[in-house]
Amino acid sequence: LAKLFLDHKTLYYDVAPFMFYVLCEVDREGCHLVGYFSKEKNSADNYNLACILTLPPFQKRGIGRFLITLSYELTKIEQIIGTPEKPLSDLGRLSYRSYWEDVIFNFLSENPQCSLDELSASTCITLDDIIWTLKFHQGIEFWRCGRTLYLKKRSLRAYLQKVAERERKWASDRNSSQDKSTDNTVQFDVSCLRWSPPLKSPKQSTRLT
Question: CB of 6 within 8 A of CB of 53?
């Protein structure tokens, strides 16, 4: 299915080694596929996502962000530090950078001086992905001292203010809609998640301690 919409996608493996997490929209006529992501059942590299796809009619509704968030919430339950398979597509990099920025900077707003290990363990984002995100974001001034990360509060506050303004704009746009039923943005509620990880050998994953 993904091959129909993702030009860069190639097929090397059978589907048997993967789990597929499918998101559907339900109405009176039944369930309709809107997107999915796949994940290796046993990943030696702790990949928490192999392929992600939102079908074109359902894009720009936050479904990609929903699926990325779900993949990391599953990673937290598994108690591992995960990362998506690389390389990412151009759209994939944008989606993940947005997710990583929000998660990392929200954590740093409460812990402006923390170790990289603490940041990684709390967010389940790998050190490489954290450093890539911080380096990419030129508005954030930071430096490392060993395994400790320091950020200038001024640049962090400026970023969080920009995020707050963006969220207020989204809320205003939704409230200004004449027909609020047209607001079909997908939101993730972790309290609704019910999932148990498949059994793994201790050698197959590096667990958080």
Answer: yes
Within 8 A by CB and 6+ apart from 112, the residues are 150, 151, 153, 156
Query: Distance from CA of residue 84 to its chain's centroid?
Result: 9
The predicted-structure confidence for 102-140, as pLDDT tens digits, reads as follows 898 888 878 877 788 889 999 999 999 998 888 776 555
101 noted as active-site residue:
no
Instruction: Single out the residue of 65, 27, 30, 21 nearest to residue 186, CA to CA.
Output: 65
Do 163 and 109 sit in the same domain of this protein? yes
Beta pairing class for 47-49 and 83-84: parallel
Instruction: Say whether pTM exceeds 0.85.
Output: no
Q: Give exposure, 72-95, as e/b (b: 16+ Cβ within 10 Å).
A: bbbbbebebbbbbbeebeeebeeb
Q: Which among 85, 101, 118, 141 is annotated as catalytic?
A: 85
d(C-alpha 53, C-alpha 86), whole Å: 15
Q: Tokens representing 106?
A: 């929200």
CATH number at residue 4: 3.40.630.30
